[in-house]
What does this fold into?
Amino acid sequence: MNTLPDGTSELIERLDEQPPLVPDELTQYILGKSGQGSSDPRVTRLISLAGQRFISAVVNETLQLCKTRETASKRQLKQGGYVEKRVLMTEDLSKALKEYGVHLRRPQFYLDDDSRVETSAPK
It folds into this structure.
């Protein structure tokens, strides 16, 4: 007997009510590139929702890491009259993604390369 977990049938029925953050067209494109195409729009929408959940979890984790990083220097900044604005750094995102098994590497053009720096000495 094939039984669905509680709420699954309701979820499937409600898939069309609200469009996900990840557009269906993008999901279909990525599925096609990976050889996993689907003709059922409900499958595509379900995968889009899973992608949205992943993005939400990563952004939330990145924000928590950002808050932790900023807490250490917060007192010093407030004494200097700094108005608080959060800036999510690539390092925060990299740490958050590592927890989900995704490792970021910087492209070569971000690496320090002294040969690209031109110095012009006055003559």
